[in-house]
Write a structure and sequence with these properties.
This protein has 655 residues and is an alpha+beta fold. It has 21 helices and 15 strands. 56% of the residues lie in helices and 15% in strands.
Length: 655
Amino acid sequence: MSRDHVQSAERPSTAAGAPAAAAAPPDDGTEAPFLELLARGASADAYEQPVLLARAEGRPADRIAALEEAKVLALRVRTELEGRRRREAELSALFETAHDLAGLRDLDAVLRAIVQRARSLLGTDVAYLSLNDPARGDTYMRVTEGSVAARFQQLRLGMGEGLGGLVAQTARPYVTEDYFHDERFQHTHTIDAGVRDEGLVAILGVPLTLGRHVIGVLFAADRRARVFEREQIALLGSFAALAAAAIDTANLLTETRGALAGLERANEIIRDRSAVIERASDVHDRLAELVLRGGGVHDVAAAVSQVLDGRVEFAEAPAAPAQALEASRAEGHAVRHGDDWIAAVAAGDELLGALVLYGHPGLDPVDQRTLERAAMVTSLLLLARRSAAEAEQRVRGELLDDLLDARDRDPRPLRDRASRLHADLDATHVVLAARLDGPAADADQEADARRRLWAAASHLAATRQGLAAARDGGTVLLLPLAPGDTATDLARRTAHQLGTAVHEPVTVGASAPVADLAAHPDQVTAAYAESRRCLDALRLLGRSGDGAAAEDFGFLGLLLAGERDVTGFVERTIGPVAAYDERRGTELLRTLNAYFACGMSPARTKDELHVHVNTVAQRLERVGRLLGDDWQDPARALEIQLALRLHRFAAPARH
């Protein structure tokens, strides 16, 4: 066989060029032993026995010649039968491989079966298959059968290297009888080391082709010198074609599965898009319904929570994350903040708050748009509510202005106007004068602070079923007095609530409780004057940010009050002592009068009362428990002395 081409095996012929099978067989029974040998499939050596036996027996020469001729014919028949059996086995193996390919489930299993059958039919020590790797630009072992060397099984060959490189370059089968002495292909240290580890000598390689492209090589190899016949090369080529078909089929199946998976994903995306669009339509309908029936901000948040399957809440601007809120306002879109989403609720440049979607990092773009649309609806609702509140505040302010100016003397229209504002002029009320005490940098800031105070006072009045109006650089409120509440408590509570709302100290002066305002609207004017005097007194005393009524200023309250409540002053100042004397029949008030008359000296007081000094001490200790430990402080002592004198004027002194 030439080294540049595949080896071939030719069948023998007669000297005359005609097939020996055409010669007339002998008819003297010489073929009988050979037929028996053919029948039992004896080896080729066994066909010499009949000839040797005839010679040993001294048979005639013509008999021996006839046996020789019969032997040749029998060997040719034997060769033909073996060829047919071999081709039958090859066709059976090819059929089984094609059957495996038709039911391809596992590409590795099919390739492994091809390599195993090729090795078995060719009778080689090793068979293996390599595939090209376009990504790395080399070829690698995919399947091996009969291999024992680990390095050989893990070989990666560069393109053009080794026998496989020669096959890949020419797309033709090549065979070498002695690998290490064959100079037709490029030897490399890595490949030669692997082949040497495996002990291979004779190697046959055939290309695996898809169209014009070589995708790999199928090999059969022996660990001894061997000549591969043309039929064996053709058989390995058939297996290579089946392997290429298996690979192509697997690639097509992979592409088909990929396409199906892509279609399935596309279908899922379409279903998801449809669901999102339906949710968007649903939230649009819900928001429209909320606006039409006058729903609030929290109703919007609840509706969006159901649609987005998450918790959505409205947050005031100071409570929302400042950076995310500003970014959302600037971009006009919802922005992610950690695992949450922030959608600014704004009106122009004014930030009103935010809609916050909690714990929903993977927000769909359409759902994000839904959240943004809900924020827009929320801003419209807030603006509408603000406009309505401002209109109501103006109406409340106008009614209080009319009461303060006593313009309308008819109780009925006053009650009707108050009823529309959910206010009850027949209930007991307190008039409160409120003013900011924080410093203002300029006139604009001061005006803005007053507007904020008026807005906060109007909101408080609306929630308490009262009235509020801006007046005299501050705000005046008319609030109902709850049972058990006092004007002082209401003033202090109002100062705290307004101060918290505007983030600045607010001082509040309160009038004494007034009632039946619809029938006597002039009471409101007098009560407002009293509350103003209390407000001025608080500021003069340095009690900015506090709230108080006239009763909280002791005897000074008698001057501040619109009506002189002497009895109330006496009761608040020494009422507990007087009540104790009445219940127990003691003389604590008399002891107090003597104590102050004697310059607050216990020794002189005991002489004035003609009692022991310990008695004076015990009585004064009792007074302290009734009036408090600070009753002897100068300011308190002055109020107690005034109350004692007023008490003596009101009733005859005890003796």
